[in-house]
């Protein structure tokens, strides 16, 4: 039975005769020869007995407020003639009045010392006995929780997971400014497995979140090691400056004028040695390039070629031998050379140069000895020039003779 501290209380007792069965009736306080009280396991002391008989051996024992002034268990002992000794030991003096429908706790009235070890456990609390409505607004705050009340050792593995928290329960406002620091995070506590795929992206990182202060001291050095050094950049700059001195002053639509480049190339700068063997092949020459080359060759002034034993020299000699005959005249003459002459030149391994030697002999009158081969050259104006093949001692083979007919 719980008894409020410093408050008089009534204790019902049942008394039987010394035969251990028959209820005892008619007793008053003065009938008791022994009446003692022990408070909170202290030594027994005298107790004033105030009893009122109810019936059937039941009596109402009244304890004064002074009898209930000490927290703890009260033990009572009574003796009288003709009855069994009476021992009452189930009285507990507490600071709370449990006879009230509601009660108010004073600061410090309930402490850990008030409860026996293991007095409150999961089995002692009914399901649903404690819910959000049980606690007044602000009842649980930082001051209400002891410094070591919540530690890693007191939280079971897996006790706190995503389902433990209501939606939006954890917000920036709910986390103290110093709640999460490097010192409060165990080594290895944060791993890649702790983050959902895509949890950390550009949108998740605040602007300027990574600045110079956020980088390790040697981070800049590591980054620079992968970039060009100042020495390398200086070399690049020097080469760039040198290239710029070689560019023309003006650009055409952002590009160099090709004519300007041509004027910058010195005479003889590009020679035969400038090209690798096989560098220029038929596949690399445009189709109209051949026509252009042929055009330049045929339109060349043949009279200016004087190097001995060259194709140009023989052409010039032919030109001079005809006294300025037109190119058409020469072509007409070549086209009318008998096939036997060309065949002989081919059979004896003569090249075009050998044929031109014979034409030269034919035109300049150097040939001697008649071989009986007559050729007629038709000029573009309709006139003809007849020549005859003879032996040329300087060549040791057939050639052409001087003019024997025509105008």
Describe the fold and architecture:
Among the domains are: 93 residues, Immunoglobulin-like; 105 residues, no CATH class. Strand 9 and strand 10 form a beta hairpin. The C terminus is likely disordered. Helix content is 21%, strand content 18%. With 407 residues, it is of the alpha+beta class. The chain has eight helices and twelve strands. The protein has a five-stranded mixed β-sheet, with no helix packed on it. Strands 9, 10, 11 and 12 form a four-stranded antiparallel β-sheet that branches. The termini are far apart.
- Placed side by side, the strands forming the largest sheet appear as 1-8-7-3-4
Shape: rod-shaped
Q: What is the number of helices?
A: 8
- Please, what is the average pLDDT? 75
The tally of beta strands, per DSSP, is 12
**Approximately how much helix is present in the residues?**
10-25%
Pattern of helices and strands: EEEEEEEEHHHHHHHHEEEE
- CA(first)-CA(last) distance: 166 Å
Structural class: alpha+beta
* Uncertain stretches of 5 or more adjacent residues: 364-380, 386-407
Instruction: Indicate the radius of gyration in whole angstroms.
Output: 67 Å
Name the beta content range. Answer: 15-25%
Note the main sheet.
5 strands, mixed
């Amino acid at each position: 039975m719980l008894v409020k501290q410093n408050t008089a209380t009534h204790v019902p007792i049942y008394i039987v005769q010394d035969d251990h069965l028959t209820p005892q009736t008619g007793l008053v306080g003065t009938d008791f020869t022994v009446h003692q009280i022990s408070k909170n396991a202290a030594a027994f002391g005298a107790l004033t007995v105030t009893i009122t008989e109810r019936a059937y051996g039941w009596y109402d024992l009244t304890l004064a407020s002074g009898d209930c002034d000490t927290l703890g268990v009260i033990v009572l002992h009574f003796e009288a003639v003709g009855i069994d000794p009476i021992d009452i030991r189930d009285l507990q003096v507490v600071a709370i009045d449990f006879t009230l429908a509601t009660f108010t706790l004073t600061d410090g009235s309930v402490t850990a010392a008030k409860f026996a070890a293991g007095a409150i456990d999961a089995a002692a609390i009914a399901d649903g006995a404690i819910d959000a409505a049980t606690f007044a607004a602000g009842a649980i705050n930082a001051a209400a929780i002891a410094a070591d009340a919540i530690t890693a050792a007191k939280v079971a593995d897996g006790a706190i997971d995503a389902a433990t928290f209501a939606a939006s329960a954890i917000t920036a406002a709910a986390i103290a400014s110093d709640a999460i620091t490097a010192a409060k995070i165990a080594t290895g506590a944060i791993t890649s497995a702790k983050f959902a795929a895509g949890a950390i992206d550009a949108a998740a990182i605040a602007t300027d979140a990574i600045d110079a202060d956020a980088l390790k001291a040697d981070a800049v050095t590591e980054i620079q090691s992968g970039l060009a050094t100042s020495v390398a950049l200086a070399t690049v700059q020097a080469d760039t400056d040198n290239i710029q001195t070689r560019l023309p002053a003006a650009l055409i639509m952002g590009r160099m004028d090709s004519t300007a480049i041509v004027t910058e190339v010195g005479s003889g700068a590009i020679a035969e040695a400038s090209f690798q063997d096989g560098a220029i092949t038929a596949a690399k020459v445009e189709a109209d390039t051949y026509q252009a080359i042929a055009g330049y060759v045929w339109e060349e002034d043949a009279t200016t070629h004087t190097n001995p034993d060259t194709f140009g020299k023989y052409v010039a000699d032919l030109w001079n031998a005809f006294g300025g005959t037109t190119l058409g005249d020469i072509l007409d003459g070549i086209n009318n050379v008998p096939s036997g002459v060309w065949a002989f030149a081919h059979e004896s391994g003569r090249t075009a140069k050998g044929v031109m030697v014979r034409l030269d002999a034919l035109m300049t009158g150097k040939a001697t000895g008649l071989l009986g081969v007559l050729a007629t050259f038709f000029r573009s104006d309709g006139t003809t020039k007849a020549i005859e093949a003879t032996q040329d001692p300087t060549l040791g083979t057939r050639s052409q003779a001087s003019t024997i007919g025509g105008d």
